[in-house]
């Protein structure tokens, strides 16, 4: 009898094992998700003879040049310390790129002479930042425009840099309040933006010798983003939400600052991208990020081109990322929620579409998970949008959920597209929930303003309501909800486990914001102009000290009980490491199971591939341990 | 008998020696353990004070390690309103904080109420003093001269730090402690630790002099009251009294009946110490309390040893008694055998000596020889069956007997044997009994024999009564004999026990009644006796009733 029971039991066990195996989705290795992009940032040279791209070499992004004539690939740089950053072609077929030497706090800028394949260091700056502003000046093809806080760490000045000689010439000295510069098609700056912290002013000058005069002044909630001069009078194209909720594409008279014409507006979302051809001086396309990006063509030629190659790339989002001066050869990037990106070369004259490379060849569409736009009503009736990515498989209810609140309210939002973190978690069997809580950008001014001073308040409520909505829709297993975020998302995670202890099993925090006082205090000097704005967003420490104290996790270690996993780069400028150390020490004293990784030579996002792999391995293990209990 | 006595005496003295030895060990053990306990307690009196100290200053350490550095979390943004809330929570949690002085400090500004004359131009913007009264924080603006002294000290420390600090790294714990803390007796000052970025700005200020930017710092001075520190006597069994006393406190104790010790308090209370004292008797009581279980264990071991000693002694004496009994038995038995043997011997020698035997003589001798041989046989049988019975080697052979016939046959035999024996019987309500007739017969024979033997020749009477009572059959043998004295009654069923009197001079080994008792027990029954001296005895045998019908 007993023997028979045992045999039956084994048969049952075996069949259970096999049935498990059958349902199991292949676990894609972590290294496939988070390795450095294999090939990316494809650009075409102005003369159309070369294609350049970044490719991983010894774990760092290095610059490669491919000749289109003979298909020969050349490795232009061989950096093994830090990757090549934002590179671009000058009008004169030179490649400019920079490197952020994090360990020395140094920025370096290089120029590459492509035909000769010679790299020169043209600029270095200790403890500062260099940004390339404009690189296509037909009249002076060797000159590029850079912004740099060399003179004063708090102020960026504009310089003209000769990439051949390395000669640096001051072009525009920042009186202290300029934050943005808009070079025109001739490489001159006629439009700038100034900020006193809260209010932004657009200034205009008719030429280099005339003084700037303010033309538009608005609160930081409003936005006027000059794009280019139209060529008619002194009108310029701009994105503006002055006197309207959703940002629209308009024409503004630079002399008066008056809005002359609305070219395009979307009723569901802000217009967030406008394609403008400097060659042909024309607007081509505008995109609204609704649930998915939506294109509006402003030029029939470009629409025709888009239609042509889109028919060959059905089902993908395609954008033009680079083109030659003749506008015959285009570099396209196609992507979906399940494709991190594929680059193509499109030749208008022949209609030929050539695949250039993939950002990540290890990713297979059928193994990845669809990102579904969702929306729900928060407790005060506001409609909140978000995205839900369910793991593959037939199961759609009672799933373990990872909530991923995004960083920086008032600066960002989650959009539709491929995300390695989301796909990684979905591949591991978690439903991933992203919320564009109030204060997120892209949904109009009212939605954005609704988030002001609501950190730990209504912003957190939106996240909580989202989780409760998932539970009420039976998608989430109420006993298995984790929260995972970086920066402000990390704050939301910590706040969630502190003040809604029953809701979350555990939290993963990357470069988490743990103290709003420090957050405000630590605004680096060159961001000082943002301080007043930050006061309006999160609160003024002079007057709202109590509120800031009430929401800052560092003051509430006693409320946390759930297991925590914390990652931090030691060189993160906005983090106070000793404070974080004390926070962790305090948590350990309270017997909170906390695992803490402090990585030297990393800023916010871990650039080092090894560190990144270790981080996601730990995250996988941590979630596995904490989401399996209470089965 | 002499030899036996000496054996007995030896073992007795051995036992005495053993007892004395373990008693001595017992006393020594008690003494040593008491001394050890006493030393241990005295040692604890010295060592446990750190535990009390730790317990007592735990809230202070908590305050110092957690609540004080919390000020830095505010990054200089602590204002009078939030400082009140902060102070309120401090007063609530840490009653030993008596007052808090809150300084709003500006760095790089010359428009202050009070400026320290150093390169950083650190100035006081405002000073608030908080104290707690009935759980409510009271704010006052009064400034004490000492406030300025504290401020100046901290300002100079900061100024010095800014001048020399290595801004390429975070300050070490040691640097932080030396710069941003100041601990004096009953007073802790703390300045929020500026960020590296700020330190760099401050350094520029030092070099270039005050500009347009003004930076804020917070400084708090906590005035402590050591007497509000709650003494937590975690060892009340050791210390009768623990109190906070000035460092110089040292009372002269004339009778020196107090044991004292002391522990220094941390720097903020360095003018005071924890003073522990206990009267000597208090410690003695503690020693006794701790000694109690140890003493009990020693006593237990001692009792155990004594018990073992007694058990050995008892075994020895039982063996001795058995030995004596066997000795008696052999004595008796030899005596018992001697009579018939000597009679046979006489008869034998007579037979040999007499040249011619008359018919009467021959019969006489024959009868004598026959009788004595029977006696011997009887004795042997008794002894054999008794040993068998004792070893439980007899098997019961049960059969149905008709009681009337059974009793009658025995009575007839005895009537023939003893013509002067008057025997009567009566059976109530039973006809048959399922039992072993041989065993039951032995009981009958022995009891009838005894009744005859222990009666006056003129009054040899026995009345046998058999009746049924519930599930038992009861045989009563009532005689009008000499009776048994009360003190003898308990012994008569013992082996080899004989009442010394005229009636058992000839041929009795003291086995008869013991045999009966063994038999009765063997048959799951019992035997008892009621007797009155000179009136008669009644032996009652109770056996479980079994009938052939049931079996």
Tally of helical segments of chain B: 13
CATH topology description of the domain at 369-628 in chain A: Rossmann fold
Termini Cα gap of chain A: 32 Å
Structural class of chain B: alpha+beta
Based on CA atoms alone, the radius of gyration of chain A comes out at 26 Å
Strand order of the largest sheet of chain A: 28-29-31-30-32-33-34-35
CATH class of the domain at 369-628 in chain A: Alpha Beta
Topology:
The complex is a heterodimer of chains A (631) and B (551).
Chain A lengths: L1 H22 L6 H5 L4 E6 L5 E8 L2 E8 L5 E3 L8 E6 L4 E8 L4 E8 L4 E9 L3 E5 L8 E10 L2 E8 L5 E5 L5 E6 L5 E7 L3 E6 L8 E7 L4 E6 L5 E6 L7 E6 L5 E6 L6 E7 L4 E8 L3 E5 L2 H13 L4 E7 L5 E8 L2 E9 L4 E7 L12 E7 L5 E7 L9 E5 L16 H8 L3 E6 L8 H5 L8 H15 L3 E11 L1 H12 L6 E5 L5 H6 L9 H8 L6 H7 L12 E6 L7 H13 L4 E6 L9 H20 L3
Parallel strand pairs in A: 30-31, 30-32, 32-33, 33-34, 34-35
Antiparallel strand pairs in A: 1-2, 2-3, 3-4, 5-6, 6-7, 7-8, 9-10, 10-11, 11-12, 13-14, 14-15, 15-16, 17-18, 18-19, 19-20, 21-22, 22-23, 24-25, 25-26, 26-27, 28-29, 29-31
Chain B lengths: L1 H46 L1 H19 L2 H4 L6 H14 L3 E11 L6 E2 L6 E12 L2 E5 L4 H20 L8 H8 E4 L2 E5 L4 H13 L6 E10 L16 E6 L11 E7 L7 E8 H74 L5 H32 L8 E4 H15 L4 E6 L4 E4 L1 H17 L7 E9 L2 E8 L6 H4 L22 H11 L3 E7 L3 E9 L7
Parallel strand pairs in B: 12-14
Antiparallel strand pairs in B: 1-3, 1-7, 2-3, 3-4, 5-6, 6-7, 8-10, 9-10, 11-13, 14-15, 15-17, 16-17
Helix pairs in contact in B: 1-8, 8-9, 9-13, 10-11, 11-13
């Amino acid at each position: 009898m007993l023997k028979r029971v045992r045999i039956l039991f084994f048969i049952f066990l075996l069949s259970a094992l096999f049935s498990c195996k059958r349902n199991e989705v292949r676990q894609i290795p972590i290294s496939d998700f988070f390795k450095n992009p294999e090939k990316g940032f494809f650009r075409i040279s102005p003369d159309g003879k070369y294609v350049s791209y970044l490719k991983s070499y010894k774990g760092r992004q290095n610059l490669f040049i491919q000749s289109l004539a003979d298909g020969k690939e050349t490795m232009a740089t061989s950096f093994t310390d830090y990757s090549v950053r934002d590179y671009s072609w000058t009008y004169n077929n030179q490649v400019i790129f920079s490197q952020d030497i994090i360990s020395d706090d140094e920025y370096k800028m290089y120029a590459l002479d492509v035909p000769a394949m010679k790299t020169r260091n043209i600029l270095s700056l200790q403890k500062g930042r260099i940004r390339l502003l404009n690189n296509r000046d037909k009249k002076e093809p060797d000159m590029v425009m850079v912004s740099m806080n060399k003179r004063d760490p708090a102020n960026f000045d504009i310089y003209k840099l000769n990439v051949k000689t390395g000669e640096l010439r001051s072009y525009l000295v920042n009186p202290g309040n300029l934050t943005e510069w808009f070079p025109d098609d001739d490489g001159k700056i006629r439009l700038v933006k100034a900020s006193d912290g809260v209010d932004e002013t657009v200034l205009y000058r008719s030429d280099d010798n005339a003084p700037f005069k303010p033309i538009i002044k608005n609160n930081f909630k409003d936005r006027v983003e000059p794009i280019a001069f139209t060529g008619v009078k002194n009108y310029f194209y701009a994105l503006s939400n002055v006197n309207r909720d959703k940002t629209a594409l308009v024409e503004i008279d630079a002399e008066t600052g008056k809005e002359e014409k609305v070219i395009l507006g979307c009723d569901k979302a802000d217009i967030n991208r406008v394609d403008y051809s400097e060659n042909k001086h024309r607007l081509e396309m505008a995109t609204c990020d609704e649930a998915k990006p939506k294109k509006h063509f402003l030029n029939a030629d470009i629409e025709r081109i888009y239609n042509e190659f889109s028919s060959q790339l059905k089902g993908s989002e395609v954008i033009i990322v680079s083109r030659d001066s003749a506008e015959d050869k285009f570099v396209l990037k196609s992507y979906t929620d399940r494709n991190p990106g594929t680059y193509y070369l499109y030749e208008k004259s022949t209609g030929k579409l050539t695949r250039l490379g993939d950002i990540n060849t290890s990713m297979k569409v059928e193994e990845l998970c669809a990102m579904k736009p969702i929306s729900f009503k928060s407790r005060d009736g506001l409609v909140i949008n978000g995205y839900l990515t369910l793991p593959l498989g037939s199961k759609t209810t009672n799933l373990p959920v990872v909530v991923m609140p995004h960083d920086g309210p008032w600066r960002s939002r989650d959009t539709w597209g491929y995300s390695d973190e989301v796909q990684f978690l979905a591949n591991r069997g978690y439903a991933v929930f992203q919320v564009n809580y109030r204060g997120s950008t892209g949904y109009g001014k009212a939605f954005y303003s609704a988030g002001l001073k609501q950190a730990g308040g209504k912003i957190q409520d939106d996240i909580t309501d989202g989780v409760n909505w998932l539970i009420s829709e039976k998608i989430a297993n109420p006993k298995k909800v984790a929260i995972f975020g970086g920066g402000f998302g990390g704050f939301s995670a910590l706040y969630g486990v502190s003040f809604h202890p029953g809701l979350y099993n555990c939290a993963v925090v990357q470069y988490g914001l743990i103290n709003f006082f420090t957050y405000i205090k630590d605004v680096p000097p060159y961001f000082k102009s943002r301080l007043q704005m930050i006061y309006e967003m999160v609160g003024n420490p002079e007057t709202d000290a109590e509120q800031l104290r009430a929401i800052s996790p560092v003051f509430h270690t006693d409320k946390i009980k759930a297991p925590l996993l914390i990652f931090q780069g030691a060189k993160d400028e906005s983090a106070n490491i000793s404070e974080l150390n004390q926070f962790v020490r305090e948590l350990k004293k309270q017997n909170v199971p906390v695992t803490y990784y402090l990585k030297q030579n990393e800023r916010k996002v871990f650039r080092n591939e090894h560190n990144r792999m270790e981080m996601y391995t730990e995250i996988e293990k941590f979630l596995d341990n904490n989401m399996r209990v209470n089965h | 008998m002499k030899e036996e006595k000496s054996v007995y005496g030896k073992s007795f003295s051995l036992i005495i020696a053993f007892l004395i030895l373990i008693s001595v060990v017992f006393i020594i053990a008690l003494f040593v353990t008491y001394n050890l306990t006493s030393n241990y307690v005295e040692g604890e009196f010295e060592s446990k004070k750190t535990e009390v100290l730790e317990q007592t200053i735990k809230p202070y350490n908590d305050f110092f390690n957690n609540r004080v550095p919390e000020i830095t979390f505010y990054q200089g943004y602590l204002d009078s309103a939030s400082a009140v809330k902060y102070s309120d929570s401090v007063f609530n949690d840490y009653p030993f904080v008596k007052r808090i002085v809150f300084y709003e400090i500006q760095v790089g500004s010359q428009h202050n109420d009070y400026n320290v004359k150093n390169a950083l131009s650190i100035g006081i913007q405002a000073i608030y003093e908080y104290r707690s009264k009935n759980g409510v924080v009271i704010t006052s603006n009064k400034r004490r001269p000492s406030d300025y002294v504290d401020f100046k000290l901290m300002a100079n420390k900061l100024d010095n730090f800014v001048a020399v600090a290595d801004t390429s790294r975070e300050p070490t714990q040691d640097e932080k402690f030396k710069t941003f803390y100041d601990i004096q007796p009953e007073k802790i000052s703390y300045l929020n630790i500026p960020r590296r970025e700020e330190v760099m700005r401050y350094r520029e200020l030092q070099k270039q002099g005050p500009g347009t930017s003004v930076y804020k710092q917070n400084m708090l001075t906590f005035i402590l009251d050591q007497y509000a520190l709650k003494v937590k006597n975690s060892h009340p069994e050791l210390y009768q009294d623990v109190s906070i006393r000035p460092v110089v406190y040292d009372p002269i104790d004339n009778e020196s009946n107090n044991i004292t010790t002391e522990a220094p308090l941390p720097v903020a209370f360095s003018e005071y110490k924890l003073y522990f004292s206990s009267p000597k008797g208090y410690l003695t009581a503690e020693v006794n309390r701790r000694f109690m279980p140890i003493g009990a264990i020693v006593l237990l071991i001692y009792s155990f040893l004594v018990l073992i000693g007694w058990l050995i002694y008892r075994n020895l004496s039982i063996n001795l008694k058995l030995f004596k009994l066997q000795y008696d038995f052999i004595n008796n038995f030899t005596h018992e055998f001697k009579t018939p043997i000597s009679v046979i011997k006489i008869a034998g020698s007579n037979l040999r000596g007499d040249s011619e035997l008359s018919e009467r003589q021959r019969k006489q001798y024959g009868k004598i020889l026959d009788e004595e041989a029977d006696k011997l046989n009887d004795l042997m049988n008794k002894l054999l069956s008794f040993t068998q019975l004792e070893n439980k080697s007899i098997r019961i052979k049960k059969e149905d007997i008709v009681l009337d016939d059974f009793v009658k046959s025995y009575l007839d035999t005895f009537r023939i044997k003893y013509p002067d024996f008057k025997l009567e019987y009566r059976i109530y309500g039973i006809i048959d009994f399922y039992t072993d007739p041989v065993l039951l017969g032995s009981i009958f024979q022995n009891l009838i024999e005894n009744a005859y033997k222990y009666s006056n020749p003129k009054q040899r009477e026995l009345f046998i009564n058999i009746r049924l009572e519930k599930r038992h059959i009861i045989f009563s043998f009532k005689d009008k004999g000499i009776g048994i004295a009360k003190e003898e009654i308990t012994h008569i069923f013992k082996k080899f026990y004989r009442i010394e009197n005229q009636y058992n001079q000839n041929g009795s080994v003291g086995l008869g009644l013991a045999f009966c008792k063994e038999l009765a027990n063997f048959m799951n029954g019992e035997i008892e006796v009621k007797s009155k001296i000179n009136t008669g005895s009644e032996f009652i045998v109770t056996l479980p009733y079994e009938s052939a019908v049931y079996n």
